Amino acid sequence: MPGNPPQPGSGPSDADLARMSREDLVTLGGEMDGVKVIYAEQPVEPGSAAERRAERQVAAAFTGAGLSALAFMVIFVAWPWQVETGGDPSGLAVLYTPLLGLTMGSALTLVGVGAVLWAKKLMPYEVAVQERHEGASPEIERQTTAATLVSGATSTGIARRTVVKRSLGFGGLMLGLMAVFPLGGLIKKPGNALYETPWEPGMRLLTLKGLPIRPQDMRPGSLQTVFPAVAGGARSADGVSMLIRLLPQQAADFRPREGQEDFHWNDFVAYSKICTHAGCPVSLYEQETARILCPCHQSQFVATDGARSIFGPATRSLPQLPVEVDDDGYFVAKSDYLEPIGPAFWERSS
What we know:
- The structure is a single chain.
- The chain is of the alpha+beta class.
- The protein has helices at about 15-20, 20-30, 50-80, 95-120, 140-155, 160-180, 250; strands at about 35-40, 125-130, 205, 225-230, 240-245, 270, 285, 290-295, 300, 310, 325, 330-335.
- It has 2 domains: about 15-185, no CATH class; about 205-335, Rieske Iron-sulfur Protein, CATH 2.102.10.10.
- About 35% of the residues lie in helices and about 15% in strands.
- Strands 3-4-5-6 form a 4-stranded antiparallel beta sheet, with no helix packed on it.
- Helix 2 crosses helix 5 and helix 3 runs antiparallel to helix 4 (about 95-120).
């Protein structure tokens, strides 16, 4: 049931309050608010071997959290991750994401373990009930409440437990840095990475099996997914293209885009496999109509008309890769794409 707040003039004076210790203020505040302690227990004796052992356990958990967060940051910066460029002959790049997840998970888990151990083994346990009262609190209650809060913080033992305090500070600092560290990946300027793919002059077109391809390997009306022959044999996500051999009549009706008249080779044309609408892989080809279809949002492009968009949400043609045949009879790129592949800030009509 609701209690009655102290009336003006009742209880200790301001001078009495000034002379009271924090413990006295805590006791007085509890009495004024109708707080009744039902049960109180100190888990360990201050200064005992059990307390020191518990401190070491808590400190080990917080230190482990800090070291895990530090390992996360080191891996984020130093571990090889560019699988698609073939710059990782050791094969360690496949472990990049799992290691980031493992170290971050360990850091967060160990912080939780340290907090639970601290609460169970070092902080006093108390059960109390309090009657509720309404209305604004007078000055005496504000002071006693503040003293109670400070006393609660003191009861955690953080002030006198140097090992726990230092390990908590180290772990907290490393966790804070770990939270903001991935933002560093947004600071580096992209340069020309958004405009370039791995294709270079004279680079061979490789199939899904990593084999070079010749004109006689494809029948009229067929499509072959091809990748640039980058170092290490890795497949390029942004360089993936499709090589199409048109039917004889389609080759005769082929209309190249202005300035790209020499991009095709005989009845072969090559286009980016990344849709210019939302970046989906354009993987369907209608042989009789020479239409390239995107399965995600049903955009359609005409292979005989410079891969011009004729249906669906895509408004830009698929970029065309200039190709030719080298002295050994294999298809090679004459250069990189002359326009950005896929959608994004460069989205424009053509």
